[in-house]
Amino acid sequence: MSFFSKIAAGIKKTKDSMMGKFESLVNSFTKIDEEFFEELEELLITCDIGVETSLAICEKLRGKVKEKGLTNPDEIKDCLKDIITEMLGEDKPLDLSTTPSVILIIGVNGAGKTTTIGKLAAKYKNQGKKVLVAAADTFRAAAIDQLEVWTQRAGVDIVKHAEGSDPASVIFDAVTAAKARGTDVLICDTAGRLHNKKNLMDELKKISRIIHEQGQGCSLETLLVLDATTGQNAVNQAKLFSEVADITGIVLTKLDGTAKGGIIISIHNELGIPVKLVGVGEKLDDLQEFNARDFAEALFATETDFDYNYERLTDDEEKDDDDSLIDEIKEEAAELVEEVKEETAEAVEEIKEEAAEAVEEIKEFAEDVKEKAEDIKEEIAETVEEIKDKLDGDDEEASEAEDDGSEKKEKGGKFSWLFKEISFGKKNKDNKED
Fold it and tell me: How many CB atoms lie within 10 A of CB 237?
């Protein structure tokens, strides 16, 4: 999801509240007059843009209306968007130009400091930077443990002392360690400074002094974390903190959960402090670098635009980044295709070899079967011959026996009884003589 989509989703409640009221105001007037501007001032104040900033916006709008000769309230929407974009000024990213670069995180308890540190650590670690975190919130119970959990998730190192120890000593050791280890980014946590507690503010001054002295030559970003849901109270916090610290930027958290996102405009206009980071969700990548133009576009986008059908022209640099990303994806896809092709070719060759071996085994088996079949055929033929020979021998014996019987029969014939009598008589005579 692009930054515009994220910021559009993050300020949906602010947009619905502010632009809903603005549309009702425009529809209730047929001309631009002083009464219209009075109603517009009140509308902007109720949207947490603040009295001073609301009056400044209306004053600039009067000048543009007069300059362009506008008379219809419908025509001032673009002018209002341009004024707010100008008030937000140029985007100022974090200065991480030195090694190490130091980021000091300040703010009251509950604003989202610990979460912001965890997200920043993960972001820079994913960019290949070496990150170190200093756990200088030694007053709040379990603050060190909570921060240690975030550093473990991000996979970065932490410098910590025992609970209740001197926060300034933690910062001193952390800056020393960062310089010795060649750390790219040192992120320093601080206790939740209550702006009405002088001793805590004095401690913050001490920490800032140590960073400037020990980290001389290192870029330093002092980021004030503000909870967007507190509205104008967040602006008051920023004013008080700016009295004791050289704040270089604002981290506005929980922007997606409030209709009071208009404080971004008043913070920059009244204090001259740029909003550098905004939290538009709970995921690690939902901490985004602030883009003033996208914020103004999303704030004034139509309902269709807000549903992510909005398309805008990007800077050449953004286009180049997109093209580079597309090229990287194409290269990765091409490499993946080549790997798949190679793996497929290897698999095909293996299958071919296995198939060839199987064919050879089948041929050898067929030859064995053929040889065994020939042997069986020969054995059967021999057996048949033996049976035939035996049968032929039996026939000859039977024939001889038949011939002997025939001769005896012919010898007797029809006078055989006479021969029997003669033989019997002769036998009796012989017996008597004996």
Answer: 21
Assess contact for 96 and 136: CB atoms under 8 A: no
Average model confidence (pLDDT) for the chain? Answer: 80
3-class DSSP state for residue 221?
strand
Residue 321: pLDDT above 80? no
What is the 8-class DSSP label of residue 309?
I
- CA–CA separation, 58 vs 64, rounded Å? 10
Burial class (CB in 10 A: 0-12, 13-18, 19+), 158: buried
Residue whose token pair is 């820079």: 124
Give the whole-angstrom CA distance, residue 202 versus residue 56. Answer: 34
Cα dist. 12→9, 62, 284 in Å?
Answer: 5, 28, 20
Q: What is the pLDDT of residues 144-188, one digit of tens each?
A: 888 999 899 889 999 999 888 888 999 999 999 999 999 999 999
Closest CA to 222 of 242, 197, 237, 252: 242
User: Coil, strand or helix: which one is 109?
Assistant: coil
Residue closest to 224 by CA, chosen among 256, 198, 201: 201
* Residue given tokens 């996979």 in the structure block: 155
How many Cα neighbours within 13 Å face the side chain of 129?
22
- State the DSSP code for 12: H
Strands 249-253 and 275-279, bridge-based pairing: parallel
- Residue 301 near residue 269 (C-beta atoms within 8 A): no
Residues of 391-418 as b/e, b for ≥16 C-beta within 10 angstroms?
Answer: eeeeeeeeeeeeeeeeeeeeeeeeeeee
pTM over 0.85: no
Q: What confidence tens digit (pLDDT) does each residue in 270-302 have?
A: 888 888 998 887 777 778 888 888 888 888 876
Strands (E), 126-241: 131-135, 157-160, 185-189, 220-227
Among 20-34, 278-292, 383-397, the range with the most confident prediction by mean pLDDT is 20-34
